[in-house]
Specification:
The chain is built from twelve helices and 18 strands. The chain is α/β, with parallel strands linked by helices. The longest helix has 14 residues. Bound molecules: zinc ion (2 copies). One zinc ion binds next to loops. One zinc ion (ZN) binds next to helix 2.
Length: about 350
Amino acid sequence: MLALRKLAPTPGIALCDAPEPGAPGPGEVLLAIGAAGICGTDLHIADWTAGYEAMTAAMPVTLGHEFSGRVVAAGAGVSALAVGTRVVARPSVVCGVCASCRGGRSQDCMARTGMGVGCNGGFAAQVVAPAENCVAVPDGLDDALAALTEPMTVCAEAVDTAGVQPGDTVLVIGPGTIGQGIALFAQAAGAARVVIAGRDDAARLATLRALGFPDTVDTAGRSLSGALAAAGLPSRFDVVIEAAGVPALVPEALELLALRGVLTICGIHARPAMIDLTKLVRRHQQIRGSYRAPLETWPRVIAFLAADPQRMRLLISEAVPLADAVAAFARAKSRTASKIMLLP
Ligand SMILES: [Zn+2]
Ligand SMILES: [Zn+2]
């Protein structure tokens, strides 16, 4: 079958012929992929930036960790998922035996493998997944919309971690899919105002305005505070959520944060950030990290997507055949597109 794979620990990806996964083992299901989204992580893996060395042992490996599909076969012991069920799959394959797993916190498993990173993922016609990772989706949510579930759980977790309260003024730094979803969940949590900042990012900021967030700023050629002032936007925020992965923005974000405010970091940063800890202490501010959501979040996010499919479709800039994946990766990297779905 055609698959988009990482073949070697060097820059590049390959659209090539991969073996079909075959029959699912005990506790597993075979999925026919409906749609799979290209994520910033995939772009990092394609470029082979630092931080993904651990996946070398899994190569050749099929990428794609944000996917939806349909159960075409179920292995022994799988009773909850009938053949034909449409699902999304949490990509974290957990060990089930470490202290976190045994304590009911499998999202913190120390021996996890990520589908589409450390084992085969969804940029192919078929994949095998643990049945316990699959969550059924309603008919009203088509394959491409359903494939937004994984990135949207990351966004819901960021807003939960930040503790956004009704009436809060929230600044989101980074207008990509994660920033877009954070804006949506912050609004759903009752934020009175959500401002989104990007740099040289006209297309994705336009997506946010189409989603109903008029307060966007582009910081190209100026500081974040300067861009906010020029647009007549607030200079203090109860919550700042960072989803850009730019270390230099962390001290700037703290300057914009209210006394006792919370800065939540979601971006993956290639370098450490320099912050003034004495200011942090005297302003009684907090910095929190947020990464993947527990499985309980998945049904809530599916319901959120299904509640307004027309609006959620704005998050998807295009859906193209898997055969066009290499060009689609180039467009995703250029930031002229938001989420691109590949259709195997
Ligand atoms: Zn992703
Ligand atoms: Zn574990």
